[in-house]
Amino acid sequence: MIEEKKKIVDNFGRPHTYLRISLTDRCNLRCFYCMPEEGIELMEKPNIMSLEEIINLTRIFRDLGVETVRLTGGEPLVRKNFGFLAEELAKLGVTLKITTNGIMLDKYLDLFQKIGLRKISLSLDTLDKAKSVFITKRDYFERILKNLEKALQMDMQVKLNIVLIKGVNDNEINDFIQLTKEKDLTVKFIEFMPFKGNKWDWSKGVGKQEILDTVSGRFGNIEELENPRHSTSSNFKVKGHVGSFAIVSTITNPFCSDCNRIRVTADGKMMNCLFANSETDLLTPLRNGDKMEDLIINAIKTKKYSRDGMDVKMDAEHYEQNRSMISIGG
Ligand code: SAM
Ligand code: SF4
Ligand code: SF4
User: Fold this and answer.
1) Residue 74 C-alpha to ligand 2 middle, in angstroms?
2) Which residue ranges make up each domain of the chain?
3) What's the start-to-end Cα distance of the chain, in Å?
4) Which ligand 1 atom is at minimum distance from the Cα of 122?
5) Predicted confidence (pLDDT) per residue in 178-220, tens digit
6) 35-39, 156-160, 246-250: which has the minimum mean pLDDT?
7) Selecting from 3.40.630.30, 3.20.20.70, 3.40.50.1370, 3.40.50.300, what CATH number does the domain 18-328 have?
8) Ligand 1 mean position, distance from CA 34 (Å)
9) What is the pLDDT of residue 112?
10) Rounded distance, CA 246 to CA 186, Å?
11) Using a 6 Å cutoff on CB, does residue 329 contact ligand 2?
């Protein structure tokens, strides 16, 4: 009898085929909604997965049915020898994607083209330079815009990630939508989420309905697009625009029912959910040469249905025990 291939399926029957790997907890920006004001205790080097360990672990996940791998961080492009890593991961036959702040993107676009990495999520919370400096506490605005243009010229599929914060960038919703008139990109509005140390309070957030009202108030008819399977956002288009827009409504309208995501932090801990406050150490057994498959398969069985059990509301006692976003890998 042929043994059935092992897969990563949780107790709700959801196959997990999407892995997000954080390559580092370091970053060249300090976005206030992500990085706590007091900073974070950085991971010590021996505790961070080596490039070989990342490749080996990805191979194990691929053999368990993972099809898509997103590289994230911190800022994934600050990881030493990032180019080598991306090339090796591409050889594993998974669909590679990346989430980046774009500062170092120009250095890697040719490589991305060569290895077939075309899906880039680029964080750009504002179209205003002074505001960018306020949000990121660094001055890289022009460089990021230039790299965005380069990526578009090279026909990359770009999504702009925009975390909307009231009184900061909520007045730019329609400026971002205006970008989609002629540019073939998606602007993705993300509801502000709570993580350890980011002083979350939903009164600072902007919800899905408010975003839709703002866009339709100015542009009129909005077309709702079909959401691909496992999509974490609802997707729309203003009639006649080349590009589209999306809303990640984790707070007001969570999209967990079809979740297929697993996260691995830079220090090799598996997290079942963005809001998980328990983790499974994969790095120690990997270094010991232990069998990993059953460990991973059993770990996913502890996954909760939605938002790590915060089904109804976000609970400070829960999310304050979690990591900061910068050390999870968003
Ligand atoms: N440094 C890269 C970047 O900024 O694109 C990758 C890592 S970053 C943690 C991944 C994504 O998480 C970014 O798009 C960022 O905007 C988002 N993010 C960070 N903190 C967030 C929060 N509190 N709420 C919602 N999204 C957040
Ligand atoms: Fe860095 Fe990305 Fe977090 Fe901004 S959102 S501080 S760029 S990891
Ligand atoms: Fe999946 Fe957790 Fe995100 Fe919901 S909140 S989509 S369960 S990772």
Assistant:
1) 6
2) 18-328
3) 41
4) 5
5) 999 999 999 999 999 999 999 999 999 999 999 999 999 999 9
6) 35-39
7) 3.20.20.70
8) 6
9) 98
10) 7
11) no
Distance CA 324, CA 162 (A): 18
Å from CA of 44 to ligand 2 middle: 19
Ligand 3 atom index nearest CA of 308? 2
Per-residue pLDDT at 179: 98
Query: If you measure from the C-alpha of residue 274 to the centroid of ligand 3, how many angstroms do you get, rounded to a whole number?
Result: 6
- Looking from the CA of residue 136, the nearest atom of ligand 2 is 4
Q: How confident is the model at residue 3 (pLDDT cuts 50, 70, 90)?
A: low
Which tens digits make up the pLDDT trace of 25-47?
999 999 999 999 888 889 999 99
3-state secondary structure the chain: CCCCCCCCECCCCCECCEEEEECCCCCCCCCCCCCCCCCCCCCCHHHCCCHHHHHHHHHHHHHCCCCEEEEECCCHHHCCCHHHHHHHHHCCCCEEEEEECCCCHHHHHHHHHHHCCCEEEEECCCCCHHHHHHHHCCCCHHHHHHHHHHHHHCCCEEEEEEEEECCCCHHHHHHHHHHHHHCCCEEEEEECCCCCCCCCCHHHECCHHHHHHHHHHHHCCEEECCCCCCCCCEEEEECCCCCEEEEECCCCCCCHHHCCEEEECCCCEEECCCCCCCCEECHHHHHHCCCCHHHHHHHHCCCCCCHHHCCCCCCHHHHCCCCCHHHCCC
